[in-house]
Fold this protein.
Amino acid sequence: MFKPKRIKVYFGGRGGMKTVSFAKIALITASMHKRRFLCLREFMNSIEDSVHAVLQAEVETLGLQNRFRILNTYIEGINDSIFKYGQLARNIASIKSKHDFDVAWVEEAETVSEKSLDTLIPTIRKPGSELWFSFNPAEEDGAVYKRFVKPYKELIDTQGYYEDDDLYVGKVSYLDNPWLPAELKNDAQKMKRENYKKWRHVYGGECDANYEDALIQPEWVEAAIDAHIKLGFKPSGIRVVTFDPADSGQDEKALSKRYGVLIEDCVSWSEGDVADATMTAFDDAFDYRADDFIYDNIGLGAGTVKTHLRHSNDGNKMVVTGFGAGDSPDYPDEIYVPGNGEYLPSSNNDDRTHRDTFRNKRAQYWVYLADRFYKTWRAVEKGEYLDPDALISLSSKIAKLSQLKSELIKQQRKRTPGNRLIQLMSKDEMRLKGIKSPNMADTLMMSFANPLRITEDTEIVVPSSSSWS
């Protein structure tokens, strides 16, 4: 944190000492060198809303009383260092005159607007000047989060920070705090047990993912990570590769690899055109020795897949199938038995067929996927025995696991008055809400839509993904 960087960002949940850490660093630096600090918030009605009290307490904690003079509205050092306070939202014009400060520290930066950010950054322009931001994330579209955290989130989730020549972004939590009060630790553990979704936001430092109609809950996904190891079974069965060639120019391509119930990899990329992506997908499938290759047959990329298929699969036993998200449900006359009756309640479950339950195949297989995650959570967390063939395991080695988890918990139901069929928000509808298209999660969903196989004597055989032979 003492390393010079133009922009320093610390975010995370409660108990991570973000504010106190910045205060300590600011005071230590200002005690050794003349530094002018401008301590800001988006909203500040009085000095009590600022970090003045925190700085005052840390002066005493650090034993720096002989280095600073604490006044009612500012703090000054014996070397002419100074700490002043201000707000951005109602005083943005006056901020433009604050160009003589060495550091602008914005506390509770989750509330900072795009306008405030665009004004502040060029204002603090002294040689060697820095901008500090500390906050608990709120929404993904928050200006500071969107600009400085979201682009590097995967790397941050992997190693805890992102760094380049100008920017340092660190994620901290109560687990990083060696002085964490026992009361706060107990509260965090209790919340994690009782309300995992709330814990992710309050203590885990994630954005508020309170999607009321989400099909899959965060704790289900966490339970599924390396579930085959947690439950002690080895994956076996067919190998499936699923591919989303992207149905619009702004979508990423995506691909998943499944072995039995184990999702071994799930990737997305934006580079290259659809033809290049299709060639890559088929090459990956052949290298993976896939039994099935399933692709999204709706949109701009589907035609390219079909064209490539005619020239590349000769002599290969891999079964290639198009998945029509808007098609009628599979097995329309079979009775649907929910894996989670409480989470997906429906009247007359005993006699509702797939045709009477799902709006289309996409809804059907997303609910099937939700059932798998729910059953896996029950097996891992509740100790219930369930057929491994009905579960799902996500490899912890998936490079984009964080993005995949995020996509899985954001797919929501769409409720229409007078229509009891389960249907989902479309990708276009999700984009309008600022939710990224769940391309990786869609390939995961499609991976369990592999076709039935029929033997030569016409007996129907369902390909097993169970560890039991």
Remarks:
- The CA atoms of residues 52 and 442 lie 49 Å apart.
- The radius of gyration is 27 Å.
- DSSP finds 16 helices and 17 strands in the chain.
- The longest strand covers residues 262-269.
